[in-house]
Amino acid sequence: MKFGHQLKTSLYPEWVFYYLAYDKLKAELKTRLNANHGQWTEDDETAFAELLEKELDKVYSFQKVKSAEIMSRLQHSKQEVEAIIQSNDAQNEDYAALEEELSHIIADVHDLAKFTRLNYTGFLKIIKKHDVRSRKKPNYLIFNGPSFLFLCQF
């Protein structure tokens, strides 16, 4: 299965605008190569790197916001648990509501992990496609950071 198709069929619909624009980057590679009769210029390299950086910023910013949101919800749930433990009149409904909220948080963590994996794979694949089609030797390093990946050119 082609990755572009896999990405389209695997994404979380509510977050569609925050995923890597893989098809756009792939089309940009093809357009630039066709415009220059198969040659990849420094201008092409600069423009493609800028597009890639914008996509990375978009994905990372979304991931950072969602992670902070999840952490905030976890903190709020922790406070609710502590309040229920200290209260003498906790009802089954209180526990059920907490259990439901924690289930939603777990689902969001799962969705965010899937979002991260798909985008990580997409970045690796589009960079590899760039290297093959442009016939350039890699001039970047990919680092796994605490929350995503970093591209460093050398």
What do you see in this structure?
The chain is mainly alpha-helical and 154 residues long. It contains 4 helices and 2 strands, in the order ααααββ. A two-stranded antiparallel sheet has the order 1-2. α2 (22-35) runs antiparallel to α3, α2 packs parallel to α4 and α3 (42-86) runs antiparallel to α4. The longest helix has 45 residues, at 42-86. It is elongated, with a radius of gyration of 21 Å. It starts with a helix and ends with a strand. 10% of the residues are buried.
Q: Which features would summarize this protein structure in a list?
A:
mainly alpha, 154 residues, elongated, 6% strand
Detail the topology: elements first, then pairings:
Blueprint: H1 3-10, H2 22-35, H3 42-86, H4 92-134, E1 140-144, E2 149-153
Antiparallel strand pairs: 1-2
Helix pairs in contact: 2-3, 2-4, 3-4
The SS-based structural class is mainly alpha
The span between the termini is 33 Å
Query: How helix-rich are the residues, as a percent range?
Result: over 70%
Strand order of the largest sheet: 1-2
- What about the largest sheet? 2 strands, antiparallel
Brief digest:
The protein has 154 residues and is mainly alpha-helical. It has four helices and two strands.
